[in-house]
Each structure stands twice: as structure tokens, then as C-alpha cells.
Amino acid sequence: MSPRALLLGTVGFAIFILSWHLATLGNQIGDLPGPAMTVRGLVQIAGEGVLWENVVASVFRVAWGFCLAAGIGIPLGMAFGWYPRLRETFNPLVQSLRPISPIAWLPFAVILFGGIRMSSDLAAIFLLFLSAFFPIVTASTSAVASLDLKYIRSARNFGVDGLAFFRRVVLPASLPQILTGLRLALGIAWVVVVAAEMLGVESGLGYQVMDSRNALRMDFVSAAMVVIAAIGLMLDMAMARVEATALARRGMSRR
Amino acid sequence: MSATEPEARQGAEPRTMQAGAKIVVRDVRKTFPTKKEDVNVLDGVDLTVREGEFLAIVGPSGCGKSTLLNCMAGFERITSGSIRIDSEEIERPSPKRVFVFQETGIFPWYSVWDNIGFGLGKMPFDKKHEIVMRYIALVGLEGFEKAFPAELSGGMKQRVEFARALAVEPDVLFLDEPFGALDAFTRLEMRREIVRIWKETGKTCILVTHDVEEAVELADRVAVMTRRPARIHSVLDNPLERPRDSDQPVFRELKDQIFEILGVERRV
Amino acid sequence: MSQALKILLCFAAFLAGVTLLHGWLNLAWFEPSNREQLTVAHLPVT
Amino acid sequence: MTEQSTEGTIFHSKRYTSWPSMTEDIDAGNLHAAFILAPLAMQMARQGKTKVKIVHLGHRDGTAIVVPTDSKVESFADLRGTRMAIPHRYANQRILVERMMAEYGFSEDDLKLIDYPPPEMPAALKAGAFESYIVGEPFAAKAEMDGFGRVLYHTKDIWPNFISCVLIVTQDLIDRDPALVQELVSGITASGKWLDEGDERLLSGLVMESASNQDDVDSGKVIVPDEFGRTPRLQAAVIAAQRRYYNQNPELLKFVLTKPPDRVKYTELELARDEFAEIQHWAEKLGFFDSRPVTEDDPFDFLDYCDPRFEQGRLRDLPLQDLASAAAEGAQ
After folding, report:
1. Residue partners of A196: CB distance under 8 A and separation at least 6
2. What is the ipTM of this complex?
3. Residue C17: which domain range?
4. C43 vs D: CB within 8 A
């Protein structure tokens, strides 16, 4: 981030915090919390250690949901991209399931994983898997489907096919678009985890918001939201770094 | 075509096998099925390419010269007729006949070294290194082994593509408007490069281009194609000695002749 | 493909780490208790 | 607080954020015991996926109707044509309101009932989303304590010994481990008795502020502020305020448990057939069992949803520090 961008960023934040402070001047605990109250709340829940438990719980669920979605979504999406008949049979199904909000699956998820240990965690992970799976499959499909014909012909011209062709041409060529899909999926999963946790589990940042609300501690609610925003940003920056290292030296002509 | 097509084609190739013929294309037809109706692209193409020759194929854009080249390379199947290389029917692409694309087909995710070594497949590192370095030297890219395509100029990327193609020691090079994406100066430089490489390696080169001057400047013979559905109108011998100078009167005469066949008004 | 392997490894390490942390902090994996346990649920309202 | 005693089962309390997530966890087999709304418990027993039985009451009363402090409403009649927020359509509070509407001759649309999450009721009342709300504690006391709400009726005034939450256990647990259910019920009865009739001995794990030192705090002991005093209800206010229980402000819980003292009752929690008959009557009337209507040949008897066997057991004794040691500790 260039210093100028950093400066402008902080100015943006400063304006937001200032207006937030003015808007909530003189509010008590029960009303809309101001920045100062939020910071105090943040310090308190951090001090009590409960914040770290909730952060770990949320990140744990997103990590598993996301990795499973990537592990299954990428190969499936690439297969859809490469074999048109496969795409024609399954893509309509995928695209019709996609708009269903993952939260709608919660009742089924709870029943599906009922009785097993860590069932509420598994239910949340299942929801996150769904929320990340669809963008990943879609990105992987279009990455392979739009593979440049001249790369395919170059490889076949040199007699490179089968697994070598997949590993040395298809995968690297579709990597940029797949990584974009992954980054998008992680963002969506992070939004969904908080919502999922509001409904079914007893740990995590979503639960923290809901529980603070029940405890009439609006300052804890805004403190949790600050943490949610910060971690969401960190996850996105981490993915951006992964993308940068993976596509290093490819320059703009990434495809 | 302004002139009605003469029945006896001037300087047309006799049908019999020519001594030293590398590629023989006989009565090739190619139709592309579309929703409305079939599009007939090649309509009875006959062409013979001699061993070690530099042949140019010239024709208006969209006439099907690239399709012909793709068929000769084995990327596309012909509807009817036959294409034989060393009297063997073409089934699919092979490292013996390497294709060079217009905007280069090298891989942006591989370094120059990896790109050139791409076609060499499994072999001990030092043997592969020796071959790769030899062709890096041939195309004048010493010192750029570790560079990636995004960091190279258009001309240098073209050189990597040539090196990659030559590294597998093919018999034939198919060049599909290879300099189309380059600026004028680089284009001139690369034309000299391809002639030098062609002389040094003795490969059979087939160049497809819509630039008549480029064809006359590079080729031993120039095959002129008609509009779609395309056929070989005629194959003209290029008597010019190398290195050629576009100001030579014979150069201009040959160019005019080709333009006239193509029915293109040359004067701007 | 070593680069892709590196990315996979750091994902796997992250996954394992956060799983153990979650188990330790929230699921009491590392607090053996021999006495029988029963959870009684309630809402924070009478 | 069962961690304090050295033997017997450890009972963990688990706080849920909504009734559906609790019932889903019961149906999923993750949960076998819970404090839940009485009509909801009956509905689960009648047509729920998991068979449950009510084994004890949670408490009595502890519910109030709240109106804004400046509102002119003096009696239920004044609520004609207004909106009232209720915690859940299958809550006993709804039955209470329906009963009072009948008493005051209200028709269905004379009082609009809105399902509303209890924690938001105080703020929503202040914001004017509705003219009154009926809910359990501490969300009634919250409005009162912050001064923008006034209690119109306590349940002790309009439905004495009002039943709101009941303790249920799954039939599966009853069949599998009746001794455990017995231990649970006798433990809860004992705590209730201590809350209403206990003396000034501190529960183990508690220490008065003046007698506490740093390692008490570090070892996680519960510090009771001196101005709170030592009575059981005030000890309970401090315990329940902890994050792992109600996660509320101790002052609010102190208010609930003491102003007035009979605002909520923790004794006489035995199951009574006639009390439940009345709840069942209203539940049927309001269509709580529509998917399996109660008829002669498909009756719904008290014993179909209650199991009072576990209430006769010996009360469990609580881990109390005897006064002597408490006094000695105080002298340090």
C-alpha cells in the first residue's frame, strides 16, 4: 500500500469514526454504542478471553468449510469446464442451487449432523461449505472452459497430453481465475459464518453478537462487529498474498 | 477476383509427385457445419511443398489459408482429399511438424528455460539444459533463461516460440502470420531472424501471411490462394537472390503480379 | 508444481492449528473429566 | 455450581439464543434436558419429533406486563386497540394475555399481538414499536430499572403462581438413566429452596469482596460485593450474572430477585394436574395442537407430558461454607 493510499484510507476511517462519535454522543449502554464505548467493550471481552474463543471458533469453521469447498469444488468445476457433456448435465443444477441462501439449509444441517459429537460445528461447517462451494465451482468451470485454444494446440503439438497436459497446462492456465474464485468464496464464507453462528451454535463471533444482544450489551455487539470486520479484512489480505505469490512474474498477461 | 479465373492455372503444379516433395496436398476440401448451412472453406486445394523449401501462402484475409495450415498441422480434420507428409497421411499433430502462432503460444506461467524445454519431455536435467541453452543461443536470448514472458518484448517472445519449436528438432515449421502482432521495426528484424534460422537449420518452412511484401521477401515460392471457398490459384517461383532488397525491380514485378492475381489495387 | 504444494501445505498447517486451538478453547478436548456430565439448556430469560 | 461439589454428576448450563435453535438441538439428539416454555414443552410432547416429559417447574411468576412510564394505561382495559409484544406464539405469556382479553371482553383484533425477541423489547418499547409488552425477567425489570418502563401487572397479581418455564428431559434420558434425572430434579429443588428460604452461609466458591484477595480472583472465585449482602438471592444475583450463565449486569438480576421479593418464586415447583389442565385448555383453544387435535380417542392426559415421579426424592444438600469458617475468613 503506497503511503498516499494509507493516508487516504486513514482519512476515510477518521471521518467515519468522527461522525459515528457525534451521532452517538451521550448514549447509555442500552442505546447505540459510540466508538469509545465500543473500544471499552472490545478491551473487556478481549480481557475476559471470550473474544479469542469466539474468534478461533469462527475461523475454525470458515477454514474447514472453505477448504472442503475448495477441495471438492475445484476438481469438480474443472471437470465441468473440460467435459461439455458433464457441464450440460450438472451446471443447471449447480446454478439453480446457488441462489439458495446457505442459512436456509440450517434446519437440514442440524438434523443431518444431529447426535454426532461437535454436531453444531459440523452444521455450521456444512453451511460454509455450501456458501463457498458454488462460487468456486463456477470460477473453476469458466477457468477451464475459457482455456486459450492455442495453449491446448501447443501442448498437443508437442505430444503432451493426459495428466502431464493437465498438470503443466490446464492447471497453471486456469489458476488465476480459480484464485479469484477462492478469494470471493472466502469473503462470502466469512459473511455467512457470522449469520450461521447467530442461529445454532454456542461459540463464535455470530454467537457473540447474539449473546451480547440478549445481555443488552450493545457495546459488546459493536465490539464483535469491529472484530468481524478486522478478521474479514485480514483473511482477504491473506488470500491476496497467496494470489500474488502464485501468479508472481506472470504480469498482466496471466492467462 | 476481377479476372475470370483462367482454366489452365499459370505455373500450376503438375499433379505428379515432385522429386523431394515433403508435403503433398491433394484435392483437399474442408467444410464447417454451422446452424444455418455448411460453410465451404477449402474447395479442392492442391499443393506440393518441397523438402527444405521456404514456401509462403498468400491470400485475402478469411480466405482459409490459416485453415489450410491447421489441416496440414493436424489440428483440424479435412472433409475430403488427402495431405501426406513423407507420404504418410496426417492424423494428428506431431512434434515433427511444429506450429508457431500469431500472438505467441508460449506459456506465461513458465520461464523462458521451462518454455523452451516444454516439448522435450522427460530427460535428465543436464541433457535438457544443454539442448535448451543451444536454442537460446540460436535465437539470441542468452541471459534471459530465468525471465518470464510478461517481462519480454514482443520480438523476444517470438524468439522463445521459435526456440521452443526448434528444440524438438521438427522437420517442418508452420508459421501462421507469426509477425502480425509485432511493430514494424521488430517485424523487419524478426524476418531476418527467421531466414537466418531457416538457413542454419534447413527446416521446411510454410508461412501463411496476408502481407504480400513479407511473402516475396522471405519465400522461395509463393502460393496465391483465391477467395473463399479457396483454392490455390497459382504458385509463383521467386527468382530473387538472398538477401533480398524490396527496391529491386524484379521484387516489385513479382509483388505486382501477386496483387494482380489477388485483384487488389496496389497504389494508395 | 512445488509452488502449488507450498500453498497447499500452508493451508493444511493453518487448518490443523486452528482445529487444535478450537478443540482446546471451546470443546474442552484437553480437559479429561471422569465424572458424568449432563448439559441443561436455558434461554437468558425466566 | 455442581463443579464445586466433589461427587455426583457435573451439570453444565448451556445458554441458547433462540427457542428454535434449542428445539432443533433436542430433535438432533444433542440435548436431553432444558428449561423451556410450558406450552412449547406440551407441544413437543404431543407432536414433536423427540418425546419429552416435564419433570419439574423452572420457577413461578417472574413475568410482567410493561408499559411506558408516561403512558396513561392504568388497567388492561386501557390496552384496547393497541399493540403488545409477546416472546413467542407458543409462550405461556400468550395464554395469559388471551385469558385476560377474554376476561375484559376483548375481541381478536382489539389487541394486536406481535412476536418479538425478548432482549429487544425494552428498546422497542422506548422506540414506540408497540404500546406494551409481556415477557419474563430480566427484560421486564430492564425497562423499569432504566426508568422508561413501568410494570402494569406482575403475574403474581393476575395469575398467581404463573408457570412460564418448565424443566423437561427427553423420554430417552428417563428410560436410559432415571437416577441422573432424579439427581437433577432434587438438585434444582434444593437450589430453589435455598433461594427462597436459605440462610446467610455463602455457597462454596463465593467470597465477600472485603474478604477476598488476589488469588481468590485468579482462582476464579465469585466475588460478592459487600453492599449486596449475603442473602441467597443476592448471592444468586452475582452467580447468575456471570458470563457462562445469564451474562447480565448483577444490578439488574439483583433488581429482579428483590424488588419486590415475590417477583419470581423458586419454591413450590411441584407439577400440579389442575394448573396444567388450564394451560392445556387454552393451548387447545388457541390451536397449539392443530396438527394433532386432542379428541376422545386421541386424548392428551397430564401424564402424557408430565412425569412427577422424580419430585419425591431426597433433596440434595448444597455445598455451603459453614458460618464459622466464613466468619474466620472474613477476619483475615
Report:
1. A61, A102, A103, A106, A123, A124, A127, A128, A206
2. 0.74
3. 3-41
4. yes
* Domains, chain D, ordered by start: 63-158 (3.40.190.10)
In the CATH hierarchy, which top-level class contains the domain A35-249? mainly alpha
The series of mean pLDDT values per 10 residues for chain B, 268 residues long, is 39 49 91 86 91 92 88 92 91 91 86 93 91 92 93 91 92 90 86 90 92 91 88 89 85 90 76
Whether C30 is covered by a domain: the verdict is: yes
User: Which are the contacts of D125, defined by CB distance < 8 A and separation ≥ 6?
Assistant: D66, D67, D68, D85, D132, D133, D143, D148, D149
Angle between helices A84-97 and A119-145 (to 10 degrees): 140
Average pLDDT over residues A158-178: 92
In this complex, the residue of A56, A171, A215 whose CB is nearest that of residue C22 is: A56
**Touching check for D166 and chain C: CB below 8 Å?**
no
Closest chain C residue by Cα to residue D118: C45
Interface of C with A in 12-41 (CB under 8 A): 14-15, 18-19, 21-22, 25-27
- Which chains share 3+ C-beta pairs under 8 angstroms with D? A, C
The answer to whether the Cβ–Cβ distance between D24 and A111 falls below 8 Å is: yes
pLDDT tens figures, A73-88: 999 999 999 999 999 9
The three cell numbers of residue B83 are: 495431405
Residue B254: CATH number of its domain: 3.40.50.300
* D326: pLDDT strictly greater than 50: no
Residue window 117-156, chain D: list those with CB within 8 Å of chain A. Answer: 118-120, 122-123, 142, 146
> pLDDT tens, B142-181?
999 999 999 999 889 999 999 999 999 999 999 998 888 8
Residue spans per domain, chain A:
35-249
Structural domain boundaries enclosing B25: 19-96+206-263
What is d(CA B202, CA D46) in angstroms, rounded to the nearest whole number?
A: 92
